[in-house]
Amino acid sequence: MSRENQKPAKRLKRNDLIAQRERQKLKHKLNKEMRKERKLNKNETKLDSKKIINEQDKVSNANETKSRVPKVSSYKKAQMEYERKDAEKKNKIEEAKKCHQEKQNALKNYKNSKKKKFRNLCKKTKNGQILMGRQIDTLLDKIEKNNK
Questions:
Q1: How far apart are CA 52 and CA 60, in angstroms?
Q2: How far apart are CA 58 and CA 77, in angstroms?
Q3: What are phi and psi of 70, to 5 degrees?
Q4: Which residues form a coiled coil (predicted)?
Q5: Alpha-carbon Rg of the chain, whole angstroms?
Q6: pLDDT tens for residues 18-66?
């Protein structure tokens, strides 16, 4: 085909070019991280397998062959990581529920004691006079608590 018959390429706008560059940067960064991770995992598995093999050699006879440690697939790793995070999340939720329940119980006890104290202080005779004995008892209790 000749150039005349071809449609001219659509020119990208500035925002599209910027977005395209950002995507390329992110892809590059992701690939870089994945390469580092693979390298680390490779080293870790080598070290782990060496440790395990050394331990097995000490236990087993010198004539036995060395066994290799099976590699854990990325799916299994991801699954284990998900389970760990899920367990952490459940523990946090349980702790929050316990804390909330304790606060509710403390508030309930505080309100009950306050209500009881108020009832004692507000008791009156049939003529409407306040009973001083109960007020003196509550003051005495207060003083005893402060001394302890």
A1: 12
A2: 29
A3: -70, 140
A4: none
A5: 37
A6: 888 888 888 998 898 888 888 888 777 776 666 666 665 565 554 445 5
